[in-house]
Amino acid sequence: MVGHGDLIPLPVSYEEREGVFHFGAETFIVAPPELLREAGALAAWLSSVDGVGKVSAVQAGVAPAPSGEKTSTSAPTGVPGAGACRGCSVIHLSLVQDAGRGARRGPRAPEAYELEIAPAGIEIRGTDAAGVVRGAASLWQLALAQGGNVGAALVRDEPRFRWRGIMLDCARNFFRVEFIEKVLDLTALHKLNVFHWHLTDDQAWRLEIPSKPELTERGAFRRDLRYRIDQWKGGYYSREDVARIIDYARARHILVVPEIELPGHSTALLASHPEFSCLGAQDPSVRFEPEDRYGIFEDIVCGGNERVLSFFDEVLGQVCAMFPGDYVHMGGDEAPKGRWLTCPVCRQKMAMLGMRRADGEYEPEHLQAWFMERLAEMLAQRGKRMIGWDEVVEGGIGKDTVVMCWRSSEQGKRAAKLGYDVVMCPQQACYLDHKHLDVPEEPGQLGVCTVKDSYMFEPIPEGLSAAERRHILGGQANLWSELLYFGRQAEYMLFPRLCALSEVFWSARRKRDFEDFCARLGAHERRLGALDLLYYKGKLSK
Ligand SMILES: [Zn+2]
Fold first, then answer.
1. Which of 15, 291, 451, 453 is the right S-S partner for 154, CB 3.0 to 4.6 Å?
2. Who surrounds ion ligand 1 at CB < 5 A?
3. CB atoms within 10 A of CB 175
């Protein structure tokens, strides 16, 4: 019988079977050595579900030692549950790269999985370790909705897009490491696989750079001007915090992408290095404070200054050492060029690089592209690829840069046609700091984005050729935090729009149906409730 177990995102197929799997007093997740980390993540998820008893991860071939019973000598192999212990239940994790060619039809695509729930036990088979974790997330969802008795089923599933991201702005508001770990679990619950960590902005520099302690000393704390309270607020992430987040994300197969914003949105950097601004390079008395206001500020990093670039060569060396992933986001958006047009250093650089039109006008967009390209080279030397917001296309940056499209889908379409790889996160559907509904009492800023607006978003724009469509890597939900002071508020803005976007990024386009999504959302809200999340409960469309 075909069903869907109220899973969000909707799986490729879900076949209901006879019977029920009962979580016993104790459950063992049996995994080969290469999947023990993933088994640990699933154990942590399941043990906090009501109705599921104790859950622990054990290595295959090593007999589990159930509480209060003698250690069994026979290892649990083959049939789940066999030889383990009385009253115990067993979940097997395995990799099945060649399953497609074997007797049993199995998953083949990256992150694909099969989840087989039978009364005798559960099996999660993935094409890779990430696939096992995606299957584990489905099991977590079913257990959250059904408790200790999960209906038998066979789920076969794989993602539509390879980039399924969530961005959390930790510069405007400082979120504690514990909250970020919670966000990573929710990211995994919805089968998203990228955590874009916005670490620097006008309001703060949050990342500890070992050789440049002044960046966080001056840049991580700001005076509260909004409430006129004479106190400093803020915080930063130490190297240990970063390592902890990366470890946590790794077990959940989530790529962590740090963002160091340049040349705009850099007031907090200028607070410790005013000489990096166009004005400060000329006048040593110029000073900046991390902003407690929001918007776009005139003073940005001086684009023609070689000292800025050599400083960032060192900073990025340390960023690349801290973050093992292949990508670093360098911002590149909302950088007003007024200062560059009058700055002697910027003007000299533009003249030298031939960035003047026939009528003598300078071309600061090209200076920005040149500046960003230098950063991209620093990253490439360290084996990393640069990501930039869609403005970076304007000055003609190199094609290896990944473009994160935020202003509108049209920008993403343009970039894909030019040959850039693109991550789609247009504000109209993917900016979760917007209001859920156009009523005065709803929190949010800069626009309205209903759950339906998010759900109806299609990441692949009309009018692209097959080759151009392949440049669309996927999509991302972005949560800016100008108006968020607590994790609770962040949860309210994220849900249930993040659920809608997870389906946009994971599920097949032809299977997406808003009515059907709304019907499943009822069960899914019970999951959100069980996880003690604050979420929006009002109208889902205009
Ligand atoms: Zn300048």
1. 15
2. 278, 302, 343, 345-346
3. 22
